[in-house]
Amino acid sequence: MRETQKISTMERVNVGLAKRYRRERRFRLFGLAAIAASLLFLVLLLGSIVAKGYTAFRQTEILLDIHLDPTVLDVNNLATANYAALVRDAVLALFPQVEGRQDKRVLGKLVSTGAAYQLQDMVMSKPELIGATKSVWVLADDEVDMFVKGHIPRDVPESERRVNDQEVAWIDQLTASGRLQLKFNTTFFQAGDSREPELAGIRGAVMGSLFTLVVTLALSFPIGVAAAVYLEEFAPKNRWTDLIEVNINNLAAIPSIVFGLLGLAVFLNFMNLPRSASLVGGLVLTLMTLPTIIIASRASLKSVPPSIREAALGVGASKMQTISHHVLPLALPGMMTGAIIGMARALGETAPLLMIGMVAFIVDIPHGFSDPATVLPVQIYLWADSPERAFVERTSAAIMVLLLLLLAMNAAAVLLRNKFERRW
Fold this sequence. Notes:
Helix content is 65%, strand content 5%.
């Protein structure tokens, strides 16, 4: 009887172990499937962005032989000269067979309106060119650019595309003569926003983001570190400090648009600071990133072993000397990591900045903290709402640039943590 009971008990144990192992294998498979699905969706998302945006890094340009006519270009009044007429004459000279007024108007639209401003900058920088004939690569119109890149199909009826058969013939003639080429789109990185897609760039938004992040980092990092040091090292443990800690944790979870409403009420309506300025944007993002930096800094301070403090106090160092000379340097790498992560979150924020007017259409490149500016996420939002097909690729290209910046900031945080982190 005892042998039979022993065998039956072992059998039950083995059956239970087999069931547990099967459950563990199923759980492991579920985890692997979840990771695979996440990676698949990430690849699809990034692939879709890249597929739509990589063409924005190249732009169609047309080579024109422009005669800088002295009768049009008055040396004493170059700023108001009719540069568009010189560009139009150069285009018409390439197609002498075009005679109708309507055809000439359509032919002139092959070239971007920004060609006149490009010619103006060239002449004003070198007035000695007046009277000469210069070969100049100018931007093509956005519809021509979309057709050359294949976004406007050639093999559809004329009524279903934005470029008619006559324009297609002109484009083919320019391509055959080597006067129409795809070149690296320097305008995308050097220009500000524009109503014309071929003239729109991200430099204004990038500079606005830079100024905004400088203000945010200059305010949030020292204030956040000081608050964390006080709460962790000096503040007495009572109900008031507990209330402050709870509020800091709650502020870290508040939707970002609430900080935008606060900035609108305090910085704009009460303090009358300039609307749509990097200074106000930095102040709003400072309020948003402070809880994150405080929490990360306190965690870094807690990671420093108590023996460091006890040893410093044991050799006669004061409380302040112990913290400033020993605890703070050891905790600084973790604080810097938290600050970089907070800056990366601030770089990708849109909602709070929309509330303070940074959604405005800004053409000029900002040169200071009080100049009207926008930021890269808001610029992406504006372009995504534009009806022109050419803005679709520029939206995706701007997203690619933003993702690269965020990736660089997160990589910097990881490198700093791995390089300076001390393990106890």
